[in-house]
Design goal:
heterodimer, A: alpha/beta, 4-stranded antiparallel sheet, 8 helices, B: mainly alpha, 2 domains, two-stranded parallel sheet, 9 helices, 80% helix
C-alpha cells in the first residue's frame, strides 16, 4: 500500500499541497482527479522523491522512500525522460542495465503491442508515440506499483483506446496503480478508487463501486457536485 | 559501484562526438600549422640557396618550430577549455531542460544518488585528462611528421621537455614537477566540485537558490584567498613562513572540498527538485 500522510508543500510561501492524506492499495486502480494546477503531478513526484515535501510522510508498504523503492514503484511521467539522441532500443537497454526488475520479454511484448520501431530515435517520436514508449519503460519493470501522470493527455483517440486496453490486461492486474487525470472518459469503468483534489487539498476520497451502487452516482456526477458547490 | 561505472559510461558516451571533435580540431590546427611552418621555412631557404649557392643553413629543431607556431597550437587548446568549462554546467542542466527531462530517470534509478554526482564529476575529469593525453600523443605524432618532412641532415634533435617548454599552454597543462601537477589539477578539481555544488544549490532552491549559490561560491573563494593575503604571503616580514601559510590554505581547501562534496550529496538526495 502507498500511504500519503499529512503531506504539505509550499513554494515561495504559496501552498502547493496542504495536509494531503490518502492511500493507494495493491491490485486497485486509484485515480487522482482534479483540474490543472490542483497539485496532482506534484503528489506523484513527491512519492517518487523527485520533489521534496515540507511536512508529512510517504510510506510504500510501510517503508519510507529509499533507493530500493525504485525497484518497487515505477513512475510514468507525461513526457519523455530519456535522452533524445538514443534509439528506442538503447533506451530499453539502459533500463535493463540499471533495474534488476526489468523484464525484456514484457518490453518486447509492449513494443509489439504499441507497434513501436526499436530503431527509431527517441527524439523523432510524436507526443502520442512518446506516451506509448513511456508506458513500455514503466510497465516492463516488474514493480508492485505503477504511478502514471496524465497517461491520456494530448493523445489521439486510437492511442487512448490502446492505452486503455493495457489497463484491463495482465500487464496491470495485481499491481497497484495510481494515476492522475483531468479527463475521466475511457477509464471511468476501470477505476476502483477516486481521490478528488482542488487547490492542493483533497476534497473527496471514495470507492467508485460503493458510490455507484449506494448512491447511483458515477465519478463524473461526484465531480460535478464537488466543483459546482 | 557497478551502477556508478555504468553511469560514467553513459555520461562519456553522451559527450563522445564533442570530445572527438575537439580532438579533431586540435589535430587539424596543430598538424597543418606545423607542416605550413616547416614548408615555408624550407622554401625560404631554397630561395636563398638559389641566390647565394654557397650559403650554409642552420639546423631546424622541432621545439623551435613549436615555439614559433605557439599561437596556432594554443587556439584549439583554448577552444577545448572553453567547451569543457561550458559543459561543466551543461552536464547538469541538459538533464533538466528541453523536451526530455532525463533527470527524472536518473533520480529514479535504484542506486545511491551520489553516484550521479560522482559519475558526472568522473566524466568531466576523464574529458580533461583524455584531452591532455591526446595532446601528448599528438606531440609524438607531430614530431614524426616533422622528421619526415625535414631533410635528415638538417634535423637538430630536441628533448621532449624542450617541446613542452616551448609553448606557454603546455607548461601549464603538463607541468614538469609533480607537486605543480597536484597543485594545479587539485585546484581545478576543487573549483569543479564547488561549481557542481553551486549548481545543485540552484536546482534545489531555484530563484532564491541563485543567491545562495553565488554566496556559497563567494565564501569559498574568500576562504582560500583571504588567509593567503592576510597572513602576508606577499610580505617578507610576515609572521608565518610561506610553507606554513600554504599549509593553512591547504587545510582550508581540504575542509571546503569535504564540505562541498557532502553538501552536494545531501542536496541531491534530500532537496533536489525536478
Amino acid at each position: 500500500m502507498i500511504e500519503v500522510k499529512n503531506m504539505s508543500k509550499s513554494y515561495l510561501r504559496r501552498h502547493v499541497l496542504k495536509d494531503v492524506s490518502f492511500t493507494a492499495e495493491k491490485g486497485q486502480i486509484t485515480c487522482l482527479i482534479g483540474i490543472n494546477g490542483a497539485g496532482k503531478s506534484t503528489i506523484l513526484k513527491s512519492i517518487m522523491g523527485l520533489s521534496p515535501i515540507k511536512k508529512g510522510q510517504i510510506l510504500v508498504d510501510g517503508q519510507p522512500l529509499d533507493k530500493l523503492t525504485y525497484e518497487k514503484v515505477a513512475f510514468i511521467p507525461d513526457h519523455l525522460t530519456m535522452p533524445l539522441g538514443m534509439k528506442l532500443a538503447e533506451g530499453l537497454q539502459f533500463m535493463a542495465d540499471f533495474y534488476t526488475n526489468w523484464e525484456p520479454s514484457r518490453a518486447e511484448e509492449l513494443m509489439d503491442f504499441f507497434q513501436l520501431d526499436a530503431l527509431e530515435k527517441i527524439g523523432n517520436m510524436s507526443k502520442g508515440t512518446a506516451a506509448k514508449y513511456n508506458l513500455v519503460l514503466g510497465l516492463a519493470q516488474k514493480t508492485e506499483y505503477v504511478l502514471m501522470d496524465e497517461p491520456f493527455s494530448g493523445i489521439d483517440l486510437f492511442s487512448r483506446e490502446l492505452i486503455a486496453e493495457v489497463f484491463s490486461s495482465h500487464l496491470i492486474e495485481d499491481r497497484g496503480v495510481l494515476l492522475t487525470t483531468h479527463e475521466i472518459g475511457e477509464i471511468e469503468q476501470l477505476i476502483d478508487k477516486a481521490v478528488i483534489m482542488q487547490k492542493g487539498t483533497i476534497v473527496r476520497e471514495f470507492n467508485c463501486e460503493e458510490v455507484r451502487s449506494a448512491e447511483g452516482k458515477s465519478i463524473v456526477d461526484v465531480m460535478r457536485e464537488v466543483y459546482r458547490s | 559501484m557497478n551502477r556508478y561505472l555504468k553511469l560514467v559510461h553513459m555520461e562519456i558516451h553522451r559527450f563522445r562526438y564533442v570530445l572527438g571533435s575537439l580532438m579533431g580540431i586540435t589535430m587539424i590546427f596543430q598538424i597543418s600549422a606545423l607542416i605550413w611552418q616547416v614548408n615555408s621555412k624550407l622554401s625560404m631557404d631554397r630561395e636563398t640557396a638559389k641566390q647565394f649557392p654557397e650559403s650554409l643553413f642552420s639546423q631546424i629543431s622541432f621545439h623551435e618550430i613549436v615555439f614559433s607556431i605557439q599561437f596556432w597550437f594554443i587556439i584549439p587548446i583554448l577552444v577545448s577549455i572553453a567547451v569543457l568549462s561550458l559543459y561543466v554546467f551543461l552536464i547538469w542542466y541538459r538533464d533538466w531542460f528541453g523536451r526530455n527531462t532525463f533527470i527524472y530517470r536518473l533520480l529514479m534509478l535504484p542506486t545511491a544518488r551520489r553516484h550521479i554526482y560522482l559519475a558526472k564529476l568522473t566524466a568531466i575529469l576523464t574529458f580533461v585528462f583524455s584531452l591532455v593525453a591526446f595532446q601528448l600523443l599528438l606531440l609524438v605524432i607531430e614530431k614524426l611528421i616533422f622528421n619526415m618532412i625535414v631533410p635528415a641532415d638538417r634535423i637538430q634533435s630536441s628533448h621532449f621537455s624542450d617541446v613542452i617548454a616551448a609553448n606557454q599552454a603546455f607548461k601549464e597543462l603538463i607541468p614538469r614537477a609533480f607537486d605543480q601537477f597536484v597543485f594545479s589539477y587539485g585546484l581545478g578539481i576543487m573549483a569543479l566540485i564547488i561549481i557542481f555544488t553551486a549548481i545543485l544549490i540552484e536546482r534545489s532552491y531555484r530563484m532564491v537558490g541563485i543567491v545562495y549559490a553565488a554566496l556559497y561560491v563567494f565564501v569559498c573563494v574568500f576562504a582560500v584567498v583571504f588567509p593567503l593575503l592576510s597572513l602576508g604571503i606577499d610580505r617578507s616580514n610576515a609572521y608565518l613562513y610561506p610553507e606554513e601559510i600554504f599549509g593553512i590554505v591547504f587545510g582550508i581547501c581540504a575542509v571546503l572540498l569535504a564540505a562541498s562534496v557532502w553538501l552536494g550529496f545531501r542536496l541531491l538526495s534530500k532537496k533536489i527538485a525536478v
